[in-house]
Task: inverse folding
């Protein structure tokens, strides 16, 4: 653990947290423009968060520790992931702990505690949203494991920083069948994990179609602000991790020399992915709930084929 690694990791976390609401605002603005609306501007999510974080939260009667601690645990696990994954550098402070299983476990932990909080409220919509979110979690997490495992087969390690470093050393591996199949599978999983169309509609106001939004209906004030900030950070981290795995150029090493270029590259790559995702959403309708497992099962098959290709075509 060096002072340079500590500084780079701190800059990475601060940059992700500061940039995450802007990513959400950019996606909303792109959708608004494509739909013929003016839009509220890319800074509107930050203004909404500032207003929420200044308000006193309210706690529904009868709720326990799960409801009160869920926003803090969700935000905490998200910050740990943001500090561990290779976004600006391949050697962050928590890089040795950035194992595939650890990152997936932290993602699952944040989702589970939020589902427990929704069940703790005792409302029908909270229970419905929690059960649907657990279904998506059970189908998406194995796909993440298999997809990244297909990329790690040639490196002999499931450490995310090691996978990115190996790709930088051998860019030809990105055009292999295993990498292409894994990219398709992980793209679907990122959409599902972040609650975007066609799996979920983050702008819906119809409770019967909600997944993530149904679990946070009872939150307000600071608690709701933490949940919304954590959700935007998770979106940014997953988009950044996808870019690091398949378009790793621009990531710096252990030093500080390449940090400005890495910041610019990360902002550009995440911005392009967010714009493409928002533009695609305009032409998609939300899937019926019984069709979502079919989509996620298809992504699991792609990830499984990627693993097979990584061993058979090595």
Result:
């Amino acid at each position: 653990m060096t002072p340079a690694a500590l500084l780079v990791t701190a800059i990475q976390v601060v940059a992700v947290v500061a940039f995450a609401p802007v990513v959400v605002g950019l996606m909303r603005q792109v959708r608004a423009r494509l739909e013929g609306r003016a839009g509220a501007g890319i800074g509107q999510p930050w203004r909404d968060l500032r207003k929420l974080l200044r308000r006193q939260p309210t706690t529904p009667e009868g709720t326990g520790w799960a409801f009160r601690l869920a926003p803090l645990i969700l935000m905490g696990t998200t910050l740990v992931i943001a500090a561990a994954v290779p976004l600006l550098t391949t050697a962050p402070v928590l890089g040795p702990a950035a194992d595939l299983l650890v990152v997936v476990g932290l993602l699952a932990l944040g989702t589970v505690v939020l589902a427990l909080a929704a069940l703790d409220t005792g409302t029908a919509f909270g229970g419905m949203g929690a059960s649907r979110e657990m279904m998506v979690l059970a189908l998406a997490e194995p796909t993440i494991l298999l997809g990244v495992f297909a990329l790690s087969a040639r490196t002999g390690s499931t450490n995310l920083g090691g996978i990115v470093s190996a790709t930088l050393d051998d860019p030809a591996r990105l055009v292999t069948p295993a990498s292409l199949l894994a990219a398709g599978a992980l793209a679907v999983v990122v959409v599902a994990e972040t609650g975007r169309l066609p799996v979920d509609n983050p702008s819906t106001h119809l409770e019967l179609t909600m997944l993530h939004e149904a679990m946070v209906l009872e939150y307000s004030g600071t608690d709701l602000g933490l949940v919304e900030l954590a959700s935007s950070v998770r979106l940014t981290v997953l988009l950044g991790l996808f870019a690091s795995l398949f378009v790793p150029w621009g990531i710096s090493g252990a030093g500080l020399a390449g940090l400005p270029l890495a910041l610019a590259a990360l902002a550009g790559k995440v911005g392009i992915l967010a714009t493409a995702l928002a533009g695609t959403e305009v032409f998609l309708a939300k899937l019926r709930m019984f069709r979502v497992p079919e989509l996620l099962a298809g992504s699991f098959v792609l990830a499984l084929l990627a693993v097979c290709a990584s061993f058979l075509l090595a």
Summary: Residues 195 and 202 are 7 Å apart (CA to CA). Residues 3-312 form one domain. DSSP finds eleven helices and no strands in the chain. Residues 3-34 form the longest helix (32 residues).
